[in-house]
Write a structure and sequence with these properties.
Pfam family, one: Fasciclin
Low-confidence stretches: none
Order of helices and strands: EEEHHHEHHHEEEEEEHHH
CATH topology of the largest domain: FAS1 domain
Protein name: BGH3 protein
Number of strands: 10
Number of domains: 3
Radius of gyration: 20 Å
Mean pLDDT: 89
Largest sheet: 4 strands, mixed
Structural class: alpha+beta
Strand order of the largest sheet: 5-4-10-9
Helix content: 25-40%
GO molecular function: cell adhesion molecule binding
InterPro entries: Adhesion/Biosynth-related (IPR050904), FAS1_dom_sf (IPR036378), FAS1_domain (IPR000782)
Domain FAS1: 1-28, 32-163
C-alpha cells in the first residue's frame, strides 16, 4: 500500500504528454511542524511533553528523519498506578526505554500499516499490529485514538494506553503478568516483595 503524506494512492501512472498523474484519496495539506512541535502545542499530550523533556528526546523529535510517534495521551498516563508512573518518571533509563518503545524507526501512516505486521521500535523491541473490526490494534488492543497527524519528520498517532516495555518494569511487575505470579505472592507473604520492587 503506497501513501503520499498519508493519502492513499488509488491509481498510479496515468501518463500524459507532459508528465504523469497519480490519483490519491484526499487533499494533501501543507506540513510545517515537527513531531516535537506537535507535542509542545497539543493539550492532550501535556504529560508526554514533560516526559520527553526529562529524557532529552526533544532534539531527536525535532531533527530531520522519518519517525512514527505513538503518542500516549494524558489519559494513557492516568491509567497506570501513580506509584508506577512516579517510579518511571524518576528513573531516566526506564523513562527513555518507555518513550523509545513508542517511537518507530520509519514513518508509518495508518493506511499503510498491514495487520499481522511486526514493527520495530527505537528501543529495539517489537509491536504487533492487528485489527479489530475497523480499528487497528497494537499488541492486541485497539488503542489508537487519533491517527495520521503529519509532521515534517514523520507521523504521530495518538494512543490512549501506555505501552510499557519489560525494561521499564520492576521484577515484581514482570512476575505479576507471567506464569510465576504465585511465586510473587509467596515473596509478598514472606515480607520479601521489596527485593522485587
Amino acid at each position: 500500500i503506497v501513501t503520499v503524506n498519508c493519502a492513499r494512492l488509488l491509481k498510479a501512472d496515468h501518463h500524459a504528454t507532459n508528465g504523469v498523474v497519480h490519483v490519491i484519496d484526499k487533499v494533501i495539506a501543507t506540513t510545517t511542524n515537527s513531531i516535537q512541535h506537535i507535542i509542545e502545542t497539543e493539550e492532550s499530550l501535556e504529560t508526554l511533553r514533560a516526559a520527553v523533556a526529562a529524557s532529552d528526546l526533544n532534539s531527536l523529535l525535532e531533527s530531520e528523519g522519518q519517525y512514527t510517534l505513538l503518542a500516549p495521551t494524558n489519559e494513557a498516563f492516568e491509567k497506570i498506578p501513580r506509584e508506577t508512573l512516579n517510579r518511571i518518571l524518576g528513573d531516566p533509563e526506564a523513562l527513555r526505554d518507555l518513550l523509545n518503545h513508542h517511537i518507530l524507526k520509519s514513518a508509518m501512516c495508518a493506511e499503510a500499516i498491514i495487520a499481522g505486521l511486526t514493527m520495530e521500535t527505537l528501543e529495539g523491541t517489537t509491536l504487533d499490529v492487528g485489527c479489530s473490526g475497523e480499528e487497528l490494534t497494537l499488541n492486541g488492543k485497539p488503542i489508537i485514538a487519533n491517527k495520521d497527524v503529519l509532521a515534517t519528520n514523520g507521523v504521530v498517532h495518538f494512543v490512549n494506553e501506555l505501552l510499557i516495555p519489560d525494561s521499564a518494569k520492576t521484577l515484581f511487575e514482570l512476575a505479576q503478568e507471567s506464569e510465576v505470579s504465585k511465586s510473587t505472592d509467596l515473596f509478598r507473604q514472606a515480607g520479601l516483595s521489596s527485593h522485587l520492587t
